[in-house]
């Protein structure tokens, strides 16, 4: 696929390691796996990753920032998630998501949301369970070892690496702000580095 058809140059995808999966693969993720490397790591299909990022961005662009919740228990994603929330104004949970945040109005940290994006369907399973109870769509970043039960849109990617998560949220912010008229492409002054946790 030509670079101009991708959201970002193929080299940028490769540099971020967004396509490098784990040695474990579930049947849920087999369709997204391009090959297995000699060291046993699965390699995800970059065209599929790109397509699913576009789908995720289109999907969340139908919602106002205050209707979106992002849950990320994985520390490697905290900087990216916070940056995305800072730019867009959406709600986020960086750290352990306490059950009931979406379902129990009596809680002081109760959040009303109409769509949720989780960084990893396993550590963020409490957030997925809450979303199911109230019937809102779930977008989840899934590595080769993830299950995809109860997920409306799977975005295949390395959901463990700082650079990979930084790239995902950078692209998502760029498309979301453009689609919703918050910022034009020219006005989007943020760089990939702004989303990448310090190494």
Please write out the topology.
Layout: H1 10-16, E1 33-36, E2 42-44, H2 46-60, E3 68-72, H3 78-88, E4 91-94, E5 115-118, H4 125-134, E6 138-142, E7 153-156, H5 162-179, H6 192-195
Name a few traits of the molecule.
five-stranded parallel sheet; 199 residues; 7 strands; two-stranded antiparallel sheet; alpha/beta
- Tell me what portion of residues adopts beta-strand conformation: 5-15%
- What is the H/E string? HEEHEHEEHEEHH
Largest sheet: 5 strands, parallel
Distance between the termini: 31 Å
What does this structure look like?
This protein is α/β, with parallel strands linked by helices and 199 residues long. It has six helices and seven strands; from the N terminus they run αββαβαββαββαα. A five-stranded parallel β-sheet has the order 4-3-5-6-7, sandwiched between helices. α1 packs across α5 (162-179), α2 crosses α5 (162-179) and α3 runs parallel beside α5 (162-179). It is globular and about 50 Å long.
Short description:
This protein is an alpha/beta fold. The protein contains 6 helices and 7 strands.
């Amino acid at each position: 696929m030509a670079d101009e058809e991708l959201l970002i140059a193929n080299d940028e995808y490769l540099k971020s390691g967004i396509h490098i999966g784990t040695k474990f693969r579930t049947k849920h993720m087999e369709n997204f796996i391009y090959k297995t490397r000699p060291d046993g790591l699965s390699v995800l299909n970059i065209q599929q990753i790109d397509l699913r990022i576009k789908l995720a961005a289109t999907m969340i662009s139908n919602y106002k920032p205050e209707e979106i919740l992002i849950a990320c228990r994985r520390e490697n994603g905290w900087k990216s998630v916070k940056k995305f929330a800072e730019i867009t104004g959406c709600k986020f949970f960086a750290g352990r998501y306490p059950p009931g945040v979406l379902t129990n109005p009596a809680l002081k940290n109760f959040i009303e949301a109409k769509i949720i994006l989780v960084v990893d369907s396993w550590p963020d399973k409490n957030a997925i369970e809450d979303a199911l109870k109230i019937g809102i769509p779930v977008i989840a970043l899934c590595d080769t070892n993830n299950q995809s039960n109860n997920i409306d849109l799977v975005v295949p990617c390395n959901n463990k690496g700082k650079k990979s998560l930084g790239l995902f949220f950078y692209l998502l912010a760029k498309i979301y702000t453009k689609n919703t008229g918050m910022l034009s492409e020219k006005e989007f002054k943020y760089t990939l580095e702004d989303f990448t946790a310090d190494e």
